[in-house]
């Protein structure tokens, strides 16, 4: 499917292409995605993934399938955050297509920390990829600041609305991003935005999981192989609580302080004036040892109460309040 083509749109005379997406909730409570591409020149190909189980293929076999899939796309614009998945995807694109056919684009916004932007710039340079920084303003998107449960849908729509015109102007055939097979087991409304805009997710299509991507990244010598997972700063604020620049700044300052203390995987979830800190269980004793310093700093930043989540760090902990039905929105 060409860039910016909605579901069911025509891509040329005698050529039809669409994404067909069917969400189901089996008894195991794992969402199943049937992610199919219908293309008149290639016939019908159906890929099905269940949660993080993928297809059971060896990671290296999946990687070769990934390279083949990327080659079939032609010239690509890569949504590049500098995280584990998008760095691995960019590396694969450079291998499959060469730097002259790849453009990494990083969106700099209120929800994206400066340290992450600088890391993305450094990584693109190390990989030898053409790289473009653009500015996006999520808080200006109607409905985004109200923080609905499908907030990520609006964010991805905003991102793709910038990337697609860039691709058109510069002669790239596709926009791609770093969704992976694991994303099918969580609340990910951004996937819907990608399908609607004709944006491809080659890692997901190849069935690659986070564990496999980390393993392959290490084999390839990518320093991001063990980089802690990261999500935009808005994900620290409970759904329904208004997102403001002040809140985002407080979260960013608090997390940066904790990272400077040596905590690599950390989240500061903001509940009003309460900071709920998540670190892996093995780091809890170390955090408690510096608790007075942490409390003093976070109160200086603007929090009244500082707490440690005894469940420890986990991805998308604020999604735990969602029911199965509301997660489908």
Largest sheet: 4 strands, antiparallel
Computed Rg: 20 Å
Helix content: 25-40%
The CATH topology of the largest domain is: Rossmann fold
DSSP strand count? 11
* Share of β-strand residues: 15-25%
Query: From the coordinates shown, what is the CATH architecture of the largest domain?
Result: 3-Layer(aba) Sandwich
Number of helices: 10
Give the rounded overall mean pLDDT: 83
Name of the top-level CATH class of the largest domain: Alpha Beta
Tell me the name of the CATH homologous superfamily of the largest domain. Answer: HUPs
Number of domains: 2
Order of helices and strands: EEEEHEHEHEHEHHHHEEHHE
Uncertain runs are 6-56
End-to-end gap: 25 Å
| Overall body shape | globular
Structural class: alpha/beta
As laid out across the biggest beta sheet, the strand order is: 1-2-3-4
Task: Please describe what this structure looks like.
- The chain has 329 residues and is an alpha/beta fold.
- It has 2 domains: 10-226, 3-Layer(aba) Sandwich (Rossmann fold), CATH 3.40.50; 233-320, Alpha-Beta Plaits (2-Layer Sandwich).
- The chain has 10 helices and 11 strands.
- A 4-stranded antiparallel β-sheet has the order 1-2-3-4, with no helix packed on it. It has a 4-stranded parallel β-sheet with strand order 7-6-5-8, with helices on both faces. A 3-stranded mixed β-sheet has the order 9-10-11, covered by helices on one side.
- Strand 5 (76-79), helix 2 and strand 6 (102-108) form a beta-alpha-beta unit.
- Helix 1 (59-73) crosses helix 2 (84-97) and helix 4 (151-170) packs parallel to helix 5 (190-197).
- The longest helix is centred in the middle third of the chain and has 20 residues, at 151-170.
- The two termini are 25 Å apart.
